[in-house]
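Action item from last week, closing it out:
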Amino acid sequence: MVSLARRSTAPRPDSSRPASSRSSYPADSTGRPTAPGLVLGPRTGYGDTEARARTGLQPGRPAEAAGVTYDEFSNLRDPLPATGTDLLPLPPGAHALHWADGLSPRGAETLAAYEHPHFGRRPAATTHRHGAGRITYVGIVPDPAFARALFDRYAPDGAWRPAHPSVTATSATARDGRRVRFLRNWSWQEVSVPVPAALRDALSDAVYAGAVPLGPWDVKVPREE
């Protein structure tokens, strides 16, 4: 049995920082990525800078921009089936794991819902247009099927979505406007990651013409020239 519990006063040490990732896709009128977007994870904004539980509605400062709040949440003893929408199609068998924020949309659109008589009254994930972009709030820990649907929606296809299963690629924009890439190899095998243009390593100053070599458990930070 699962239940939606009132907010606990026990702080999480790392909860003062949102679990988020940047999307390089904008969003069109249907909510699919086309202006840069921000994806927030469960318990975003729960703690203050001293890791104390905030007393107001969560997720605190991002609430207005995200168009959603929560003041209840629950842990999940069993996986909870989830269904998608036209904005976020989910495959059969997608589930929420371990955790569920009790999301209350305040202008946000529902991306996914629970198949449950109680939790089904709240969305599992929402999206809301803000300024030139869009903020998506995912109030659960997604299982692999749910997570893949999210990444298919937000992560770019192509050169910066490595095909090798042990390699991840993220990016940021430097103060001078250039893109900085972070390539990680999560395995014991050496990997060569193809890149679409010449890059210069921000740490070693090495230049990579067509591929970036990664050793076992290696990290490289190339930047676009």
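Closing note: Residues 1-31 have pLDDT under 50 and may be disordered.
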